[in-house]
Amino acid sequence: MKDPVPGRPAAESPAGAGPGGAAAAGPAPWFQHSVFYEVLVRGFYDANDDGTGDLKGLTSKLDYLSWLGVDCLWLLPFYQSPLRDGGYDISDFFTILPEYGDLADAVELVEQAHRRGIRVIADLVMNHTSDQHPWFQESRQDRTNPKADWYVWSDDDQRWPEARIIFVDTEKSNWTFDQTRQQYYWHRFFSHQPDLNFDHPAVADAMIDVVKFWLDVGLDGFRLDAVPYLFERDGSNGENLLESHNYLKRLRAEVDASHPNKVLLAEANQWPADVVDYFGDGDECHMCFHFPLMPRMFMAVRREQRYPITEILAQTPDIPQGCQWGIFLRNHDELTLEMVTDEERDYMYAEYAKDPRMRRNIGIGRRLAPLVENDRRVAELLHAMLFSLPGSPILYYGDELLMGDNIYLGDRDGVRTPMQWSPDRNAGFSRADFAQLYLPPLMDPVYGFSGVNVEAQMRNPSSFLQWMRRMLDVRRQHPVFGTGAFEVLPAENPSVLAYVRSHEDEAGHQNVVLCVNNLSRFAQPCELALGRWEGRTPVELLGRVPFPRVGALPYFVTLAPYAFYWFDLIEVQEETL
Amino acid sequence: MKAEDLLSGITPLLEPYIARQRWAAADPGGKVSVEKAELLDGFEPPTLWLLVRRHGDLYQLLIGLRPEDEPLDLGERDVLGVFASGGKAWFAYDGLADADIVKHLAATMDVTGVEDAIVRPVGAEQSNSSVVLGQKVILKLFRRLQLGPNPDVEVSTGLDQVGFNHLASPLGVWSRDDYDLAVAQEFLAGGSEGWALALTSLRDLYASEEEDPAVAGGDFASEARRIGEMTARMHIALGKAFGVHPPSLSEWADALVQQVDRLRLGADVRLRAEALARRVVVLKEVPSVRVHGDLHLGQVMRADAGWFVLDFEGEPARPVAERRLPWPAAKDVAGMVRSFAYAAAAALHERESSEREALEGRAQAWEQRNRQAFLEGYASVEGLEDVLPAEGPDSDAHRDLLAFFEFDKALYEVAYERAHRPDWEDIPLAAIERLGKG
Known about the structure:
The structure holds two protein chains of two kinds.
Chain A: E1 36-39, H1 41-44, H2 55-60, H3 62-68, E2 72-75, E3 79-80, E4 92-96, H4 103-115, E5 119-125, H5 134-139, E6 153-154, E7 175-178, E8 183-186, H6 201-217, E9 221-225, H7 242-258, E10 263-266, H8 272-275, E11 287-289, H9 293-303, H10 307-314, E12 324-328, E13 335-336, H11 342-352, E14 363-364, H12 368-371, H13 376-388, E15 392-396, H14 454-459, H15 464-477, H16 480-483, E16 485-489, E17 496-504, E18 510-518, E19 524-528, E20 537-540, E21 545-546, E22 555-559, E23 564-570
Parallel strand pairs in A: 1-2, 1-15, 2-5, 5-9, 9-10, 10-11, 11-12, 12-15
Antiparallel strand pairs in A: 3-4, 6-8, 7-8, 13-14, 16-17, 17-18, 18-23, 19-22, 20-21, 20-23
Helix pairs in contact in A: 6-7, 9-10, 13-15
Chain B: H1 3-19, E1 32-39, E2 47-54, E3 57-67, E4 79-85, E5 88-94, H2 99-108, E6 119-124, E7 128-133, E8 137-142, E9 144-145, H3 151-161, E10 170-176, E11 179-186, E12 192-193, H4 194-206, H5 221-242, H6 249-263, H7 267-281, E13 300-303, E14 306-309, H8 320-323, H9 330-350, H10 353-379, H11 396-420, H12 426-434
Antiparallel strand pairs in B: 1-2, 2-3, 3-5, 3-9, 4-5, 6-7, 7-8, 8-11, 10-11, 12-13, 13-14
């Protein structure tokens, strides 16, 4: 099909566009079947009563995470930092932020997690450091010191005008003047985060030493922050440069050689056609986030039609064997609108960020529940899609409770409030004085911890938390969600999104799971052409209820508002049902 | 086996079979005469192709033949019956219901890659029937034939050749003796009609707490805008493919006033029709192009790659020669603009009559917003100056033409509604009330 959507990457055939590894020889890599859980150490649990979460606190809550059914934790940065950007401004790569604990605590966390079958990856910022990092402090002294070229310096602020400014709310330029050295330094993010100069061999080597140090500690991989920006070149916008890809390939090769079976998860907020380059030929990053999918899932529900989703999936190229997308609904950053068109962005702002305070940089700073106006049906539908679309799902701490946010807190803190464990003081998060807490827990009547907390939801069999646990359980039983081929089924009703995930198991049996989603707030009918599976019986996966056998005629399904079905299409003799 | 030998046996089965079909004229008990008969070369099972005349209409029939003891399990509509010929009993049926015959037909049209495809029927239209092969190819068999090129085949082939890509690419045509018999096109899998999407948006608005369609969640304006852009690109491509011609303005201007008289819409409407016609007649240098001819929300389809235009047959009730005439592009623009009004009204008709008055403001706001977005999208495309009056889409001339054709379309709608749905007449009448004032 030709692609009449102008200004977009050419559409590739979506048919069979499963993640790499659909027909892989040998077992699929672990991360293709994992559910990730993004956790803010600061906000999870405070073990030493100082008002700030810590590694020991997280370790003490591993049983909860194991109960919930997550496979891999993603820790936000835990390194030494002046904390002017949530720890993404690292001032010492080899030291744990003292508020979080020490290296021994990190080793203990990893060991205890592994004992429960949970892996741990951590954020790592390669592109830049804090301006407090000793490397920068040395580099800025003069133009001749040993680390003089470890950062990117210039006599004027005119170079690389093509590079866009990412934090448009706070930054006016990508160059900032340093009084000491009397030169400008380059920074793609905040001015207190100077970019490292990866053209310098010593910098390139030093960052690989950082990676290996933490792999030795026991980490299972990294979420690599801001990878498109590692290098700078004249006449380019400084994103997705070949040099950056080559460096990541070197990193991958060195990790594979010394620490096999790890994962590198790239944060590259780009169009899918550009992002796939970060998989290389299966020799670069194992995983990449699929950024454009997320806002479009919200948009599809709001517009009650599937095209925002199917359009971006049709534009998503196949990825190499052994690779995987990371997909998510929310994370610690704003709901990113960089990867939507201007018109779509206006729409999203109008719909989801009615109060200008909700807007952060180019995005919307809200948690999942407030984004869907606390409609549990929509939250369930969005998660059902998250767990069944191609990719490994990444949850954000607290969203399993439908926690809220506080848009009156500064920057992106609104979605980083303490985990709500119980109705006790400080949400059961900390026994410190209230005033000592890093951020106040939510106390409003809708999302406040007195009603929304782990303890209450564990006791209530119909809670969202229990529903989530059940879904993760069902997903785990069906590896086809992790590695199966993906194909959208045509449906005349635009409010219905139907697709199949399929793969062949070891016995040569074709496993087929049919997912049908109603994006509308009204009940909807739908006819599906299931002729290929004539004679099979759809069995609904949550209740194991058999539905009428697939015949030659289109298969008719009715869906309640925001309903979804997962059907295992099984071959079975009628009498055994 | 020869085709002629089968005729005596099969001819009595034809009339009852044709009379059951949606594509046949409704006259009861007509006589069917076979003008041509042929066993198609290489088809297995044997497939009989007939050209038959019934009430002056010409039809092609594609009939599959299987031994009587090996019949296909088909619906009543598709079965002609059993007849004897040459000492053998044959089960005769609609060939389009047989996947093997469909695949032979596809092969005849040089369509490849569908050998293992599942074949399923997809709805029957007034003049043709379609089957889909493996979600890749749609094969349309024209049932009622008209001499000369089929406009759908002609226009989609022409547009494809000049690089217009908002349409299902033609893959092959089956023609013989100056008749287009069937066409194979790329199947737009996963598509939804614009009409269905518009109603989705409207149902959301009518059930919303928001009065303003711009704020309601299911806003359609961005889609309307894209449909406008596509329509403009289509007109530019039609100009390239079929040339730009001078129009014959006075003919349709007269027709407009006559139509008002026929519908007895009163002196006030007649005056406005005359005023609209006068403004159009004096226009100079209005280019005309081949147009879609029946452009509305049901003729555009949203798929993953964007919007597509369907079905270039034009209004099927009109003779082919008339459908192939060039028109000002504003005729298509008016058709789509009217469709927004119809969508808003159709969704209103879904509601209880007691609710309608309260929702009318929203219906008008929706129509206005999407009409505006569609026209803005249309005007935003570069290259329109070749197919529109001088000074382009913002000129008075284009606006006058648009008003004229909207009025014209609304008159056609009044006639249609009076005949079919009298309680819907108020929809086009509201437009007539608004148009041509001032």
